[in-house]
Amino acid sequence: MTTQTSNDLYDQLEEDPWRFLQLSQEELFDLDYDRVEQFQLALFKRRFEALKPKLRALQRLAEEVGVDEVSGFEDLTRLAMPHTMFKSYSALDVQKARFDKLTRWLQALTTHDLSAVHAEHCESIEQWLLEVERVTPLRPVTSSGTSGKISLFPLSTVEESLFVDKNTYIVEPYRDEPGIYAKSGEYVFVCPWPSRYGRHNIPLIMRVLKENCYDGREDMFITLDDGTLTADEMWLNGRLQRAQALGEELELSPAEQAIASALATRASNADERWTRFIENAVVGLKGQKVMFYGAIMNLYLMAEACRKMDIFVEWHPDSMIMTGGGTKGFSFPEGWRDVVAERFPHHVPARVKEVYGMTESSSTAVCCPHDKLHPLPWGITHLMDPATGQSLPRTGTQTGRMVVFDPMPTTFWAGVITGDQVTVHFDGGCACGRKGPFMDNDINRISELNGGDDKIVCARTPQAFQSLEDFLAKAS
Amino acid sequence: MKEYTIPLIIRGRIIEDNLVRYEGRRGEIAFLTPDVNKYLNQIVLRNGSDLQDYYSVSMDNILDFLEELGRRLHPDTNPDIRLALEMNMQSSGQSPDILRTAYVSFAANLRRTIVEEAIDQNIGRDYLEGWKPRKLHDRDAMVRAFGSRIVHLNAGNAPNVALHAVINGSVLRCDNIVKSPSNDPFTAVAIAKTMIAMDPDHPITRHMTVAYWKGGDLGFEKKLYDTRNIDKIVAWGGPASMNHIRQHLTSGLDLIALDPKVSASIIGAEALESDEQMGWVARQLAKDFGYFNQEGCGNSRLAYVVCGDDDRSLDRLNRFGRLVQDALQALPAAYSSPHPAFDPVLRDEIEGIRYSDDYRVFGVKANEGGVIVSQQAEAVEFSDRLGGRVINIIPVPDLDAAVAAVTIHTQTIGIYPNAAQAEIADRCMLRGAQRLSPLGCIAYEGLGYPHDAMEIMRRLARWGVREQFDEAVAEAGAGMMCAA
User: Fold this and answer.
1) Largest Cα span, chain A
2) Which one of 2.40.50.100, 3.40.50.150, 3.30.9.100, 3.40.605.10 gives the CATH number of domain B2-259+452-465?
């Protein structure tokens, strides 16, 4: 690139960050990071100025913390929303079908006009979401926690396509690192996810890929289970788990009982489901180009299912495995890595890309051969002290709670305080050649860092919730 | 990370060999302590007859011993207690002031009059001193409470918990194996060392073992939890540890489960009637959730207040919430203080609702604690996480709605006004509550009545019966008389 071209490019990127998506991974990670930081900050300022008058939640937050205008990256720790804000509605409103109140709650988080949403006839959260999606461009992403409610992230059709790019960029080749051009639509997407459709992050990725890269071809997507995981099912999951944990009474309506029963039946057929999945995803795809997408835990479960069936994964050698999520939170048996390597003999480890991403940001991070995570450069990665909330310096190596800001979205505020503790090397210099800050591939949940797994108290404390599937299987 | 050596105490002996390393809670302390696996045979009392020595001392002697022990546990004069306090400062949820208050109160807890009252009210001294006769319609019986071989799985949220094992285990003449918790790894050791300094050969000392092992150490616990070694387990703990212990239960092994509990407040509409009333009730409520930093099962976490759902009523409730927050901040430092390690997940949850129309949040900016006022009749979704001096005030239409929220996990309920206690008492109990107290007093639990819905002293004892019949009955056979 000539200096002139380069300057033009930087100007264009600052003008419109979506232009980042026209660059290759090599071009992205070759950008002058000082310049990148300049327009990251400029975009942070610009988005704040543009969205504050339109988003009630951001207004209240800014007033509370006393920030009128953005002056530096450190303002992000005060202006980022806690990830819990996306479930701050009242559960009672859902139970009593007061969805007009939910609409008002959601309006505080999006610039889209929700006045056309008529919620008075909605009897369930699924019906309300369908109505929201019918009359507005909003496409909320849902996720469930262990405490009852489901999160509703205010994504809309304006930003949906980012879910294509954030997941295809990072499997692209970089220098001599292997990769694929997943947008080509020639790789069968294999994902051991227990539904094909729904509003969770994973079905969303499948949907946007299908629409944007696969001409809508259903046969190019293989999941553990078919069907849709509805918001009503997710809602019921949460309620059942909470009631079980707290010893509360729960009266299910006939409709809810039917949902619980269907879920329980599905949960009780785990072996059968995995066998069917392996038949489709391994036996049926022998020699074909595949993009595997799933958590490391799922990769292991798939290998284990193959071991039980005494078969090996023999996809086309160009296939890629895209995984992440680390090994925390799941009890991997001793020797599990050997099981994975044995059952994926042509792809593990050579064709594995580890990634670290989240619904709240399109700036997914890819793991390089030196086991370092490199976030796609448009997003701001910032750190705060997990105890005090104070901003940490953006120099040297720092460990703290990660705060992200994604400058791409224009209809919601994409500054979020994550629940993760990470170590960032702000000065860059990774041996893989990518420019810009990078992270250690050792992500910890803040909630799990409080130590003391042998602490005993008489007061009731949060417990490890039994998995829904176990619970339902027992209840059925 | 500061590292300590914590001895294993076995029946008057202080052992510091075969050390293994553990990390305490919050990763701020580590400790080296003997590997219990090397000492299992010495830890357990295989032969129950070896409790005989306990019966050579009178209850007066035991009470004297405990009172003297109490006098020697003052942090100003006892270096081991000072060390326990130092460790607790780094591993517990209490401030130095509160911890000091707790340790200073040891002497009062072990005072003769207090322990005697607990005995008289909970079991009866006659049953502990000898065989107590009972004249039945067809026989003369005698009943006596004997000591048993007990493993105490202590809780660590307050130092005073360590005294439960000492008091109950001594007056019942039990063989006591105390497992220290990682969040208070030294208090029980400090007490046992003080006993040894007092009289290493006293039966109380000779039947006191204090050890640390990591809860869930399958190898050790499988060997320990055997009816050849112990009779009963007294377990405090969370659901996971309770479920773990239950796996070990075999026929003959009794589990006294002090399952985790939460406490609550029920406040009548009278509280909001005048500003003066509101201020007084706010101060009482602050005590119930603020004392001892809300670390105990007796601390309130949810306060149900009878209140309308119109804007004016909710405004008043929100004013009450602000007063509660003010009252919390005014509590004396010896009883309540900013939490040294506020739960980061709870903080996230609160930040999530801070700007929601469905809740008002007062405080919880740093670790000062605070008040969440629900604007509808529902508790926050994360109610099971409330701690660090944070209470959720919930408007309810009437007392019945508050009672409906009581479950088997509810321990104590602070009630205002006092007259409401009689009105809702039976219904609260039937739903699972265990103790009702005036608002402002729930942290002040006595020893002379049941705890966690059971009479623990009676459960800890092994009850013996002797009987004699008239000659005619004996001649005919007792069963025959029954049939006649």
Assistant:
1) 69
2) 3.40.605.10
Pick the CATH number of B262-438 from 3.30.390.10, 3.30.420.40, 3.40.50.300, 3.40.309.10: 3.40.309.10
CB-CB: which of B297, B345, B366 is closest to A459? B297
Mind telling me how many Å the CA of A452 is from chain B's nearest CA? 4
A239 vs A241: CA distance, rounded Å:
5
For chain B, the structural domain boundaries read 2-259+452-465, 262-438
Q: A75: burial class by Cβ within 10 Å (0-12, 13-18, 19+)?
A: buried
Q: Which of B23, B157, B407 sits opposite A247 (nearest CB)?
A: B407
Name the residue facing A452 among B182, B349, B352 (closest C-beta). B182
Q: How many CB pairs under 8 A join A and B?
A: 165
For the question of an ipTM over 0.85, the answer is: no
User: Are A446 and B182 a contacting pair at CB < 8 A?
Assistant: no
Put simply, the answer to whether B381 touches A149 (Cβ < 8 Å) is yes
Contacts with B341 from chain A: Cβ below 8 Å: 450
Angle between helices A336-343 and A296-309 (to 10 degrees): 70
Q: What is the token pair recorded at A250? A: 């729960």
Tokens read off for B153: 């799985």
Residue A285 forms contact with B (CB below 8 Å)? no
Under 8 Å between Cβ of B419 and B425: no
Asked if residue B482 has pLDDT above 80, the reply is no
A191-222 tens-digit pLDDT: 999 889 999 989 999 999 999 999 999 999 99
Task: Write the single-letter amino acid at B247.
Answer: Q
Tens digit of pLDDT for each residue in A148-159?
Answer: 788 999 999 999
Contacts B454 to A, Cβ<8 Å: none
Whether B236 has a pLDDT exceeding 90, the answer reads no
- B246-289: pLDDT as tens digits: 877 888 899 998 877 889 999 999 999 999 999 999 999 999 99
Partner-chain contact B356 A105, CB within 8 Å: yes
Q: What is the mean pLDDT of chain B?
A: 92
A416 touches chain B (CB under 8 A): no
Instruction: Please state the φ and ψ torsions of residue B178, each to the nearest 5 degrees.
Output: -100, 125
DSSP-assigned letter for residue A459: B
Exposed/middle/buried for B473, CB within 10 Å: 0-12, 13-18, 19+? middle
